[in-house]
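pasting for ref
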Amino acid sequence: MEDFEDIPNLEELEEIINDEEGDLENFVKLEKEKDGIYRADIGVPITKTLMRNNMEYWAQQTMDINQSLLTTGRQYGGNIYHNSLRIYLMFANICLYHPHFLLHHKATIHIELKEPGEHHENAYCLTTKHDDKARRLAIKATGITEGGETVVEYLWSAGTMIAYKINSWIDKLEGIPVEEIARTKRRYLFLDPRNRPISGLEKYIGGGYTPDTTE
C-alpha cells in the first residue's frame, strides 16, 4: 500500500467518520498487531470505510473537507464551552459567540483565503507577523434565523501558536512537502504515531513546532 505522509490525526478522523453512515453506538479500541500496524481502535464510531484501513481514502476525504470549507462552506455541530459554541476544525478549536449559534449548537463554516502577499481584513489569527501566511485566512460562521435572516460572525483567536498551525495548513493546501514545511520557521506539524516515521522528523510525532528564529 502506498505511504501517505499526512494522514489525519484522531480528531480529524472523527470529523471525517461523522460524515459517514455507520453504527454510531459501536466503538473500537486501538490494537497494535505483530506487523506494527494499528488495525482498528481510534476511539471513534466504527464504519465500513474505517475497517478498510485505506489511507488513500482518508487523504482524499481530508482534501474534500478542505475544498468544501473554501467554497460552499461546511456545517458543523459543536458544544457549549464558557459561553461560546466550540467547534473543532483541522487546525484549531474555534469559538462562536453569536446568540444564534449558542441557541442552535451549529453553524456553517467558511474559510476565506486571500492571494499570497495579501492580508485579510478579518484574519482569524491576531498574532501574525508580516510574513505569516495566516494573515491571508479568515474564518466566517453563518446561519439562518427562523425569520430567514442571515447571521454572520467572523471569528478570531489571539493564541500564540495558532499562526504556526494555519501557516502549515496553507502550506499543505499549496502542495508543499512535509519535509520543507518542517524546515520553515513558525510552522506546526502533527505526524501520527501510528504511521511509519519520516527520517529526520521524529520530533513532530504527536505534534511539534518549528520555532521562529528571530524570537
